[in-house]
Design brief:
Helix content is 42%, strand content 6%. It is mostly helical and 157 residues long. Strands 1-2-3 form a three-stranded parallel β-sheet, sandwiched between helices. Helix 6 links the parallel strand 2 and strand 3. Helix 1 packs across helix 3. The longest helix has 14 residues. The protein is globular and about 60 Å long. The termini are far apart. The model has no long low-confidence stretch (mean pLDDT 92).
Length: 157
């Protein structure tokens, strides 16, 4: 099994996915515990963010020594009283993101993306948290033969 971070990294590096352009706004990347520390993808996670950005700004303590966002370990589904603790726990992550000046945060984990979107609202970060797949699908070059033809353009008479 290959994580999407590794797949996208390798496909772009090998030229199997070509990009029309890169994201122009300043970007940074979240290092999800399950992807980076458990999955060993710290270097590829950072390299992928850099490959699709014109202005990539790593967080301090990037990679294996980055801080948890506070949304993992089952904390996200716990609402009610747990929400305020989860958001308080994520203050360190919110400060890290704010320090970069990034406007886009790549977040390759479902729990982390929900947490970082909540942190953005709580701490007024003014960022957009997105999965790589959202960014790459917008930036990628689509081969001519794969672009749907309008009726009458496909050689129909």
């Amino acid at each position: 099994m290959i994580h999407s971070v590794e797949l996208f990294h390798d496909y772009i590096k090998e030229g199997r996915i070509k990009l029309r352009e890169k994201i122009k706004e300043p970007t940074t990347v979240q290092d999800p515990c399950n992807v980076v520390r458990s999955g060993g993808l710290a270097a590829k996670n950072q390299a992928l963010a850099d490959m699709i950005s014109e202005d990539f700004r790593p967080m301090r303590n990037q990679g294996n020594y980055n801080f948890c966002c506070g949304g993992g370990g089952g904390a996200m589904p716990m609402g009610g009283e747990m929400r305020k603790h989860r958001l308080k726990c994520g203050k360190v992550k919110a400060d890290q993101i704010k320090e970069t000046g990034a406007k886009v945060v790549f977040v390759p984990c479902h729990n982390c993306i929900d947490q970082i979107r909540d942190l953005s609202k709580e701490y007024d970060l003014g960022i957009k948290a997105i999965h790589y797949k959202e960014a790459i699908s917008e930036l990628m070059e689509i081969p001519e033969h794969m672009i749907p033809k309008e009726e009458g353009e496909a050689g129909e008479e």
